[in-house]
Amino acid sequence: AGHGRDGDGEDRPTRARREPGGVMAGSGLAWSLRMLRRGGISLQGLLVGQVGVAPAQLPKTNTTTSSASVTSRLYASQEAVQDAEHVHRPYVTRREKAIIESYAHPAREYLRGWEGDARLGEAVDSGADAAEVADQGKLVDRVVPVLNRSLESVGEVTLPGLIYDQPLRKDIVHRVVVWQRANWRQGTVKVKTRSEVRGGGRKPWPQKGTGRARAGSIRSPLFRGGGKAHGPRPKDWSQQLNSKIRRLGLRVAVSSKLATGRLTVVDELRIESEVPKTRELREFLDKFEADRTSFLLVDDAAGVDWSSYEPYHAQTGVRKSPWQWRSNLLRSAKREEKLESRCEEFVKLERSAKNLRKRAKVVQPEGLNVYDLLAFDHLIMTPRAVKAVTERLSHPPPRFY
Question: Which of 250, 316, 354, 357 makes a 20 to 30 Å CA pair with 281?
């Protein structure tokens, strides 16, 4: 049969017009029927409710689609979503898969719940010791001691190798730092040209006969007080960088701190006095016996209870990453002004470090960036800050629909 024709040689629009009840594919009625089906409204229900036709008089059609069936196609049922057990899948790129396959070390706990390539799952062994690996870049879990204010070990914390054991990539770190510094530029510098400087509307002397060089305005760039030729103008210096590159740069910077022994996990960063005291913080930093060493302190001021994390939205069934869930909690707490009492200790710590100038800086997990990791020598984190940074870098960037 030719294009647009049936087996008997008759074109389809002609057959649709000839047969009773036939509807052309390009007619307005056919388009209306498709829109009704897509919106979950049946033709039978529309005629019964609007026209008043009895259901027995309507032809039997298979176009009945309820709104519940449409909803069931978009989301799973609410009971199934709530009862489903959440399995964490770490975000593993192709480059990281190649590293894991080439170096099959068993200390990779983050691969236990991963349902990807079976060859990667074979590299997991509960009896392995993560401290045996000394070189950087094997994506192996690292065990780090937790110290108290006296720098005595009070416990241990396991840092996922997918985040804290990345291979050194100077090119990635350089791209992220250039992106950061470019976005910091305001671009508001502005100078006046010869047409914008006040005055200079009269020709200072005649064109000929004076022996001087010809001039048309005293506001020329050649004159003192004149305009600037080719001066800076307002400009947008911001750059675009893929989110995967930004996240990889932060992983590489944190892994470099851990590989060089400049990452310390302390049980808490707290000022004991009732008011901010720089002396108390300085005494704690002096215990590291490094006079010319600068410190970057990271603590989670929100105090979020990670055990109450729900991976799926209760009403829509859309999956939420832990970092997105945490951000929503902080945003709602700030809106309701309930965050001041919970951040009191963090505010004291932040104010105590202000007088130390460039020796110490206090940031939250969402403020940790590559530039500060390179500018400061030593990184000090609390276990809750480690938890927040791990959740921040363990998942792909959230997609908003």
Answer: 250
